[in-house]
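Bumping with the actual sequence this time:
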Amino acid sequence: MILNPKFKYLTRDQVTGGYKPFLWEVTYTKGPKDYAYTHRDTVEGLECLGLHVYQDGANDSYNWASIHVKQVLRGESISRLFESIIEIWVYPNFSFARDPMSNEPWNVFGLEINDGRNMVWLIFSEGPDEVYQLRNHRIIIVSTPLKHWAKRQIDLDKIYSDANWERPEDLSLILICGATKMVSGKYSGYIKEIRIEKK
């Protein structure tokens, strides 16, 4: 269902000159002096995919410096996904920050699920679990310790039911790391594997 789920296989990234995970689409949003790239890293003895971003904080036309690592699922894969649990091994390095008035995210390390109509960000950060809605953008903070490997389980069927969303015909699973110019600096997060397990 998910291809290259442990990110073992790499291919040349024409944008950065480095490497990206094979069978995953990688896109970048960044200003002239920001950077974003993927890297095959080893963290605490475990090989993983590293997402690396630098946000310079400059007042240019790009609010975000971010990286998206995407795989599109369709048809039978969608049915299986909604009948299963997504298990993901993550290593977050920074705390989630947001606008205190609007709750708009200022940074992110997590998993985006986007079906073209609705979007949810599962953000891995320390602190309590939390769910809130921004227009068609749902935010789920998944309590995860910083600077440690942790396995987290995601029930997509429950997420859609709780939000009163219809099950889609296709969707994108997107690993995401980024920061707005409100919180400049270097950001990174690591993913070891994504696995789909029957409920």
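The tokens above came from a reply further down the thread. The chain has a mean pLDDT of 96.
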